[in-house]
Write a structure and sequence with these properties.
The protein is of the alpha/beta class. Helix content is about 50%, strand content about 5%. Strand 1, helix 2 and strand 2 form a beta-alpha-beta unit.
Length: about 260
């Protein structure tokens, strides 16, 4: 895993330099994905890595954990509370006030406003500083579309995009990510009490087991119902991973 960490950091450095950029900016949520990514970015660009901490009616623990990682590894950060922006947009779009006690996650369109506002902030600083935006998604989540299109799914590079969540945890141990972050329940923080595994419908261990089985073709020991669920999620989210479909007038023909 030490070698893997070095390889990923070198890859980040190479991609940024190829783009003619000076450094990287990423969102730091206090979760495992962003913490691991931030440390790898810091290794690649010790002086030009910027972490944005962007709470939006977030738990205080998440902000504490993000700052904990930033302080431990010397990562420059800027805190931007986007709560008012979120409330303002919601008031315009739906003509209603935001109730932070309500589970707005029932309405996924409202919940997805948060990561999309965060990505606006990230690209603002990327443009201003000539940095690349680094996404924090891993292979487990990307495979089933567990990300917000043009939200946390929008980025210039994805260093963890080929690592399963279970592999990422091992990398976190090597990088000496704080134990409190490694062991915390994964959550995108879209609404109070929301957890990733409850949204996905299975544990990351179960998900990764099925994803590996799909690669090898050996499904022994996998739950058939969960296997079907994963395949449905992969198919339903295909549009999130593909390039935008473009009509080709030379090739596409309508049948009359």
């Amino acid at each position: 895993m030490d070698e893997l960490a070095s390889r990923i950091s070198e890859w980040i450095r190479k991609r940024v330099r190829e783009a003619g950029a000076k450094g990287v900016v990423l969102g730091m949520s206090g979760g495992l994905d962003s913490s691991v990514t931030a440390v790898l970015c810091k290794k690649a660009f010790p002086d030009t890595t910027l972490g944005l901490i962007m709470p939006c009616f977030s738990s205080k623990e998440d902000v504490v954990h993000a700052k904990m990682v930033a302080n431990k590894f010397g990562i420059a950060t800027k805190e931007i509370d986007i709560s008012d922006i979120f409330k303002f947009l919601l008031n315009i779009l739906e003509e209603r006030e935001y109730d932070k006690e309500a589970k707005e996650g029932i309405d996924i369109a409202v919940a997805n406003l948060k990561p999309r506002i965060r990505m606006i902030c990230l690209y603002y600083f990327a443009n201003k500083l000539n940095y690349l935006v680094v996404g924090t998604g891993n292979k487990s989540e990307l495979s089933i579309g567990y990300f917000t299109k043009y939200g946390d799914g929008a980025a210039d590079i994805l260093p963890l995009g080929d690592l399963l969540k279970t592999e990422e945890r091992k990398l976190a141990e090597v990088l000496d990510i704080p134990r409190a972050i490694i062991e915390k329940v994964p959550s995108a923080g879209l609404w109070a009490g929301q957890t990733d595994e409850s949204e996905i419908g299975m544990s990351y261990d179960e998900l990764d087991k099925i994803l590996l089985a799909m690669e090898s073709g050996d499904f022994r020991g996998c739950d058939p119902e969960l296997e079907k669920r994963v395949k449905r999620m992969m198919e339903a989210s295909r549009h999130k991973r593909e390039r935008i479909a473009v009509f080709n007038h030379r090739r596409d023909r309508c049948e009359h």
